[in-house]
Amino acid sequence: MFVFIGIAVLAVLALVVVATTFRRRDTETAIGQLSGETVKRDRSAAAQRAAVPAMSVDAAATGQAGEQLSGSAIEAAARAERSGELVPAEDRPPVVYVPPDPETLGVSRRQFLNRGIVAMFSLALAAFGAAVLAQLWPRPTEGFGAKINAGKVPDIKDAIVAGGGFFYFPEGRMWLTDYPPSALAKAQSTYSFWPQVSEGLEAGVVALFQTCPHLGCRVPECQTSQWFECPCHGSQYNQVGEKKGGPAPRGMDRFPMEVNASNELLVDTGNVIQGPPIGTNTTGQEAEGPNCLGAGGGH
Ligand code: FES
Question: How does strand 264-268 pair with strand 257-259?
Answer without folding.
Answer: antiparallel
